[in-house]
Design goal:
alpha/beta; five-stranded parallel beta sheet; 12 helices; 11% strand
Amino acid sequence: MTEATPLLLQANLKQLRLPTMLAEHEKLAREATTRNEPYDGYLLRLTELEVAARTANAIAARIRAAGFPVVKDLDTFDFTALPALPKQKILELTRREWIDQSTNACLIGGSGTGKTHVATAIGLALCRVGLRVRFVTAASLVTELEAAQQQHRLDRLLANLERVDLLILDELGDLSFSRAGAELLFQVFADRYERKSLLLTSNLPFSEWGQISQGERMTAALLDRLTHRCHIFEMNGESYRFRESMKAKDGQTMKAAKPKK
């Protein structure tokens, strides 16, 4: 090995865009010398670090691209508050089999019961296994679709949505849409039918979805496509936010009642 070898190695690693190997090769080389490690063992450890770093960076990029409002996992969700919600079935949605089968999922229940938390956790888990996810509220997506149509770039937006493995549509039913907006949303549903998966959260039972699209026929067609192959979960119970608020008030009351020393 000549004096120029380390510099040439660094230059090659930079050109090959192997930043982790560039950062770690000297340290691992010293360790390999101390252990009398064979060359292939040293090279294996070095490449494993590069692969691990690339995997972590790819996961982080998918999570950023998904647009989650917050990062929440299922290990922080209180399943005991919703005993009728099948935990094992929810956990199965964190695996990619249902996405590979182009099926859908719906989380239906009152406000504050954790639908967004569960949907986010499922989406995060799927990002970590290599899938492309997009999280958006129904109202925001309709606004985005209407703007794209007015700016003559609707086809491009629909093509981008079609490339997403899982589209999470949150808070469907919180706001009603114009006829045009509902038709654009229906187009997204139709484009994904039996091709890509949807995960919807809604505080409205299916029987009341007519107020979303302002038309019985469109609602029937939308539900037909959505529920044809769909995992449906009812999440009805006491509001999580209400329970947390009451706990906080109880804590303050106990603190105020505690005698001063």
